[in-house]
Amino acid sequence: MDFLHEWLPQRVRFDTGRATAALAEEAASAAIARPMVIATPRGAALARTLTAGLDVAVLHDDVREHVPADVAERARTVAGEHDVDGLICVGGGSATGLAKAVALTTGLPILAVPTTYAGSEATDIWGLTTDGVKRTGVDPQVLPKAVIYDAALTVGLPVGLSTSSGLNALAHAVDALWAPRADPINAVLATEAVRSLAAALPAVAATPDSLPARADAFYGTYLASTAFASAGSGLHHKICHVLGGRYDLPHAATHAVVLPHVLALNAPHAPDAERRLAEAFGAPSASAGLRALYDELDPPRTLRELGLSEAQAVEAAAAVLSVVPESNPAPADLEVLETLLRSAWAGS
Ligand code: NAD
Question: 259 partner at 20 to 30 Å CA-CA among 23, 107, 131, 191?
């Protein structure tokens, strides 16, 4: 019972159907008068609608997944040219990630309006990709000052993306249970996240326009991310970062594919995590619970279908080996990692 738990200072609003008003209130509260709005080209129209009542200095839509360093540099230049006093990101983890890259060097405050279940909005973790290597770091400056979860903004997220993104959220929770700073508090957050996501994601898949199901998915997403931010990156995240940075794979789908393999490796060596996950899934074991959820959701199950060759998957093992957390419950040498990645590639 000896541990140090750090809570991140952030305002979190669940405000279904009220994102525009909530954003105006949060901008006033954070004294942001000339925001730079960051969204993908696809999300730009929504971002414009949500910020119509604000004095937007510039809308920036040059957003790429995994935040390539040159994309980050361009966004920082735009922020400087327009003399902005805050950042508003509307969209998935890619839009949030770019806002974080700008905040990292400028200290500008961020208001986040997520539209996927990536969960980046609730962490103080940034990521940048240079020459195929994704670096991550922790900095309090990149933690959004406020997050507005409006479930109505996610009803248009296609079921396939909702499922993969929701499993990315689930992975934050599962991996938190054996991450370097796992503690009894983030374990409670992670367990409740798994319980809520295991119920919400099938409901979202069955009824994509259900606002209660979408709000529940956001609730699980938020809890999972706070658990992840507090506990740190476990083996699962290390593997996905190597794969995402090296091969530019889709982030959410990669998480969906890799998670069952890391669970199968670690659960037998982590009795507390095994018990918590089985209970949260309402299943005889953690793996049985995850398998039942995957059978219901039918997410991508192989790295092969994401476009990776078997040789690439196996070759990534060496890069993962150098970043395996000491806290990982199962031994993970090169042979174990190669076997895991080969299984994830084939879906076996
Ligand atoms: P994304 O932001 O790239 O979004 C995926 C796709 O969904 C995009 O094409 C986007 O335009 C579309 N989209 C988003 N919202 C939509 C909506 N409501 N309706 C229809 N389409 C919509 O991907 P993501 O999975 O949300 O985020 C992945 C990125 O986030 C990665 O770069 C990852 O590293 C980062 N991430 C960071 C953290 C962190 O703590 N730093 C945590 C999780 C993810």
Answer: 131
DSSP state of 149: E
Closest residue to atom 28 of ligand 1, CA basis:
93
* pLDDT at site 66: 87
pLDDT surpasses 90 at 53:
yes
Residues 67 and 97 in one domain: yes
Q: How high is the pLDDT of residue 210? A: 98
Mutate to test the pocket of ligand 1, among 16, 40, 238 (most ligand atoms within 8 A of CB): 40
| pLDDT average, residue stretch 166-175 | 98
> Which of 154, 189, 220 is the last residue before a domain boundary?
154
With the most atoms of ligand 1 within 8 angstroms of its CB, the residue from 110, 225, 251, 255 to mutate is 251
- Shared domain for 262 and 298, answered yes or no, is yes
The pLDDT value given to residue 142 = 98
Joined together, the tokens standing for residue 46 give 């929504």
Mean pLDDT of 225-252: 94
Residue 132 has pLDDT above 90, yes or no: no
Our answer on whether the CB atom of 40 is closer than 6 Å to any ligand 1 atom is yes
229-259 exposure pattern, b = at least 16 Cβ within 10 A, e = fewer: bbbbbbbbbbbbbbbbbbbbbbbbbbbbbbb
**Residue 3 and residue 257: Cα distance in Å, rounded?**
32
Query: Which CATH number covers residue 192?
Result: 1.20.1090.10
Residue 106 burial by Cβ neighbours in a 10 Å radius (0-12, 13-18, 19+): middle
Asked if residue 128 has its Cβ within 6 Å of ligand 1, the reply is no
Task: Indicate if ligand 1 lies below 6 Å from the C-beta of 343.
Answer: no
- Give the domain-ending residue among 102, 125, 154: 154
Closest CA to ligand 1's atom 37? 120
Structural domain for 170, as ranges: 159-346
Residue 5 placed within a domain? no
| CATH classification of the domain holding 59 | 3.40.50.1970
Gap between the terminal Cα atoms of the chain: 39
